[in-house]
Amino acid sequence: MSASQQAGGAQRTQSPTPATPPKSAAPVDQLDISSAASGVNRLEGAIAGGGEIRIDRVADLRRQIASGNYDTPEKMDAALERMLDQFA
């Protein structure tokens, strides 16, 4: 009998552990861009490529929108058509 058995202790057996952990697939980064974001990128490119922003016109339109005078159906239709033409 061994000394540990004589003292009333239990013997432990050690299970073998692998020398190297199992190899797993490396994580892959992925980026999905929506069509809306792609459209924004095209608009930014158009502005940067010589598009002109008329600050006075933007301020006037903002005033009209804030006062509730801009959103007539005719103006909304015209604005929508112009915007869709830029995406076509």
- Main sheet summary: none
Note the total helix count. 4
**How large, in whole angstroms, is the Cα Rg?**
35 Å
Tell me the distance between the termini: 89 Å
Shape category: elongated
Helix fraction? 40-55%
* Share in β-strands: under 5%
Catalogue the unreliable spans: none
Count the E strands: 0
Mean pLDDT: 74
List descriptors.
0% strand, 88 residues
What can be said about this structure in brief?
The chain has 88 residues and is mainly alpha-helical. Helix content is 52%, strand content 0%.
Question: What would you note in describing this structure?
Answer:
The chain has 88 residues and is an all-alpha fold. Helices cover 52% and strands 0% of the residues. The protein has four helices and no strands. The chain has helices at 3-6, 35-48, 55-67, 73-87. The longest helix is centred in the last third of the chain and has 15 residues, at 73-87. The radius of gyration is 35 Å and the shape is elongated.
Question: Which SSEs are present, and which pair or pack?
Answer:
Elements: H1 3-6, H2 35-48, H3 55-67, H4 73-87
